[in-house]
TrEMBL record:
The keyword Zinc does not apply. This is TetR/AcrR family transcriptional regulator. It comes from Paenibacillus alba. Gene3D superfamilies: Tetracycline Repressor, domain 2 (1.10.357.10). Residues 4-64 form the HTH tetR-type domain. Residues 27-46 bind DNA.
Protein backbone atom coordinates (compact mmCIF):
# COMPACT_ATOMS: atom_id res chain seq x y z
CA UNK A 1 0.00 0.00 0.00
CA UNK A 2 1.24 3.48 -0.71
CA UNK A 3 1.01 6.24 1.91
CA UNK A 4 -2.10 7.90 0.47
CA UNK A 5 -4.10 4.71 0.02
CA UNK A 6 -3.03 3.39 3.44
CA UNK A 7 -4.11 6.65 5.06
CA UNK A 8 -7.48 6.52 3.26
CA UNK A 9 -7.94 2.83 4.10
CA UNK A 10 -7.25 3.54 7.78
CA UNK A 11 -9.87 6.30 7.81
CA UNK A 12 -12.47 4.25 5.93
CA UNK A 13 -11.90 1.23 8.17
CA UNK A 14 -11.99 3.35 11.31
CA UNK A 15 -15.23 4.98 10.14
CA UNK A 16 -16.86 1.56 9.85
CA UNK A 17 -15.43 0.19 13.11
CA UNK A 18 -16.34 3.31 15.09
CA UNK A 19 -19.88 3.14 13.71
CA UNK A 20 -20.19 -0.57 14.51
CA UNK A 21 -18.50 -0.63 17.93
CA UNK A 22 -18.33 2.96 19.13
CA UNK A 23 -15.27 5.03 19.91
CA UNK A 24 -14.67 3.50 23.33
CA UNK A 25 -14.80 -0.13 22.22
CA UNK A 26 -12.72 0.31 19.06
CA UNK A 27 -9.01 -0.06 19.69
CA UNK A 28 -5.94 0.72 17.65
CA UNK A 29 -5.30 -3.03 17.62
CA UNK A 30 -8.70 -3.64 15.98
CA UNK A 31 -8.07 -0.96 13.39
CA UNK A 32 -4.56 -2.24 12.59
CA UNK A 33 -5.83 -5.81 12.24
CA UNK A 34 -8.71 -4.79 9.92
CA UNK A 35 -6.39 -2.69 7.75
CA UNK A 36 -3.70 -5.37 7.70
CA UNK A 37 -1.02 -3.27 9.37
CA UNK A 38 1.13 -3.73 12.42
CA UNK A 39 0.34 -1.39 15.30
CA UNK A 40 3.64 0.49 14.80
CA UNK A 41 2.71 1.02 11.14
CA UNK A 42 -0.68 2.36 12.20
CA UNK A 43 0.99 4.70 14.69
CA UNK A 44 3.19 5.94 11.83
CA UNK A 45 0.04 7.37 10.20
CA UNK A 46 -1.87 8.40 13.34
CA UNK A 47 -0.35 9.09 16.75
CA UNK A 48 -3.44 7.87 18.61
CA UNK A 49 -7.03 6.74 18.32
CA UNK A 50 -8.04 10.28 19.25
CA UNK A 51 -6.09 11.55 16.23
CA UNK A 52 -8.10 9.23 13.99
CA UNK A 53 -11.35 10.34 15.63
CA UNK A 54 -10.41 14.00 15.11
CA UNK A 55 -9.34 13.49 11.48
CA UNK A 56 -12.50 11.55 10.67
CA UNK A 57 -14.57 14.31 12.25
CA UNK A 58 -12.86 16.97 10.14
CA UNK A 59 -13.49 14.93 6.98
CA UNK A 60 -17.11 14.29 7.96
CA UNK A 61 -17.69 17.99 8.63
CA UNK A 62 -16.31 18.91 5.20
CA UNK A 63 -18.62 16.40 3.54
CA UNK A 64 -21.82 17.52 5.28
CA UNK A 65 -21.52 21.31 5.05
CA UNK A 66 -23.98 23.42 3.09
CA UNK A 67 -21.65 23.99 0.13
CA UNK A 68 -21.19 20.24 -0.32
CA UNK A 69 -24.79 20.07 -1.52
CA UNK A 70 -25.93 23.53 -2.60
CA UNK A 71 -24.04 25.55 -5.25
CA UNK A 72 -25.69 28.94 -5.42
CA UNK A 73 -24.02 29.80 -8.73
CA UNK A 74 -25.94 26.95 -10.40
CA UNK A 75 -29.33 28.51 -9.59
CA UNK A 76 -31.15 30.47 -12.28
CA UNK A 77 -34.65 31.89 -12.50
CA UNK A 78 -35.68 28.95 -14.69
CA UNK A 79 -34.18 26.12 -12.60
CA UNK A 80 -34.43 27.52 -9.07
CA UNK A 81 -37.17 25.28 -7.63
CA UNK A 82 -36.00 22.13 -9.43
CA UNK A 83 -32.37 22.65 -8.37
CA UNK A 84 -33.33 23.51 -4.79
CA UNK A 85 -35.31 20.28 -4.49
CA UNK A 86 -32.61 18.16 -6.17
CA UNK A 87 -29.82 19.57 -4.01
CA UNK A 88 -31.74 18.86 -0.81
CA UNK A 89 -32.55 15.35 -1.99
CA UNK A 90 -28.80 14.70 -2.25
CA UNK A 91 -28.55 15.05 1.53
CA UNK A 92 -31.34 12.55 2.07
CA UNK A 93 -29.87 10.07 -0.41
CA UNK A 94 -26.40 10.38 1.10
CA UNK A 95 -27.70 9.40 4.50
CA UNK A 96 -29.91 6.63 3.13
CA UNK A 97 -27.03 5.05 1.19
CA UNK A 98 -24.36 5.31 3.92
CA UNK A 99 -25.30 2.69 6.49
CA UNK A 100 -22.70 4.03 8.94
CA UNK A 101 -23.45 7.76 8.71
CA UNK A 102 -26.14 7.97 11.41
CA UNK A 103 -24.20 5.80 13.82
CA UNK A 104 -20.97 7.73 13.43
CA UNK A 105 -22.72 11.08 13.70
CA UNK A 106 -24.42 9.89 16.89
CA UNK A 107 -20.97 8.98 18.24
CA UNK A 108 -19.72 12.51 17.56
CA UNK A 109 -22.83 14.07 19.10
CA UNK A 110 -22.26 12.01 22.25
CA UNK A 111 -18.59 12.96 22.21
CA UNK A 112 -19.70 16.59 22.11
CA UNK A 113 -21.03 16.22 25.67
CA UNK A 114 -17.50 15.43 26.88
CA UNK A 115 -15.61 17.70 24.51
CA UNK A 116 -17.45 20.91 23.58
CA UNK A 117 -15.23 21.40 20.52
CA UNK A 118 -17.20 18.66 18.76
CA UNK A 119 -20.63 20.05 19.63
CA UNK A 120 -19.48 23.56 18.72
CA UNK A 121 -18.41 22.38 15.26
CA UNK A 122 -21.74 20.59 14.72
CA UNK A 123 -23.58 23.79 15.71
CA UNK A 124 -21.38 25.73 13.27
CA UNK A 125 -22.43 23.35 10.50
CA UNK A 126 -26.09 24.02 11.28
CA UNK A 127 -25.43 27.77 11.37
CA UNK A 128 -23.68 27.35 8.01
CA UNK A 129 -26.85 25.81 6.61
CA UNK A 130 -28.92 28.73 7.90
CA UNK A 131 -26.49 31.26 6.41
CA UNK A 132 -26.31 29.29 3.15
CA UNK A 133 -30.07 29.00 2.83
CA UNK A 134 -30.43 32.73 3.59
CA UNK A 135 -27.93 33.53 0.84
CA UNK A 136 -29.61 31.13 -1.57
CA UNK A 137 -33.07 32.56 -0.89
CA UNK A 138 -31.79 36.15 -1.22
CA UNK A 139 -30.27 35.09 -4.55
CA UNK A 140 -33.66 33.65 -5.58
CA UNK A 141 -35.35 36.95 -4.76
CA UNK A 142 -32.68 38.96 -6.60
CA UNK A 143 -33.05 36.94 -9.83
CA UNK A 144 -36.86 36.97 -9.65
CA UNK A 145 -37.17 33.22 -9.06
CA UNK A 146 -39.12 33.72 -5.84
CA UNK A 147 -41.10 36.52 -4.26
CA UNK A 148 -39.63 38.63 -1.50
CA UNK A 149 -39.95 36.81 1.80
CA UNK A 150 -38.62 36.70 5.34
CA UNK A 151 -35.32 35.18 4.27
CA UNK A 152 -33.92 34.48 7.74
CA UNK A 153 -37.06 32.78 9.04
CA UNK A 154 -37.34 30.62 5.92
CA UNK A 155 -33.62 29.77 6.10
CA UNK A 156 -33.99 28.72 9.73
CA UNK A 157 -37.06 26.65 8.84
CA UNK A 158 -35.16 24.82 6.09
CA UNK A 159 -32.24 24.15 8.42
CA UNK A 160 -34.62 22.73 11.01
CA UNK A 161 -36.23 20.51 8.39
CA UNK A 162 -32.85 19.19 7.20
CA UNK A 163 -31.67 18.57 10.76
CA UNK A 164 -34.95 16.96 11.82
CA UNK A 165 -34.95 14.63 8.84
CA UNK A 166 -31.36 13.68 9.67
CA UNK A 167 -32.38 12.85 13.24
CA UNK A 168 -35.51 10.96 12.21
CA UNK A 169 -33.52 8.86 9.74
CA UNK A 170 -30.94 8.09 12.44
CA UNK A 171 -33.78 6.65 14.54
CA UNK A 172 -34.76 4.44 11.62
CA UNK A 173 -38.12 6.11 11.03
CA UNK A 174 -39.37 5.50 7.50
CA UNK A 175 -41.01 8.80 6.69
CA UNK A 176 -41.47 10.14 3.19
CA UNK A 177 -38.40 12.37 3.40
CA UNK A 178 -38.25 13.15 -0.31
CA UNK A 179 -41.87 14.33 -0.27
CA UNK A 180 -41.35 16.33 2.93
CA UNK A 181 -38.39 18.18 1.41
CA UNK A 182 -40.15 18.72 -1.92
CA UNK A 183 -43.30 20.04 -0.20
CA UNK A 184 -41.27 22.39 2.00
CA UNK A 185 -39.37 23.85 -0.95
CA UNK A 186 -42.46 24.20 -3.15
CA UNK A 187 -44.41 25.96 -0.38
CA UNK A 188 -41.46 28.29 0.13
CA UNK A 189 -41.14 29.06 -3.59
CA UNK A 190 -44.85 29.87 -3.79
CA UNK A 191 -44.52 32.06 -0.74
CA UNK A 192 -46.91 29.96 1.34
CA UNK A 193 -46.43 30.08 5.10
CA UNK A 194 -44.30 27.25 6.42
Amino acid sequence: MNAISTYTTILETSYRLFAEHGFDKTSMTMIAKEVGLSKPALYYHFSSKEAIIQTLFEELCKSIGFSSFFRIEAYTKDNFEETFIADGLQIIHKQQTDMYYSRILNQYQALGYRDPAYSLKLVQILEGFTAGFAELLAHGVSIGAIAALDVLTKAQMLTMIIDSMDNFMSYGLTYSYENIWTTAVKSLIKGDPA
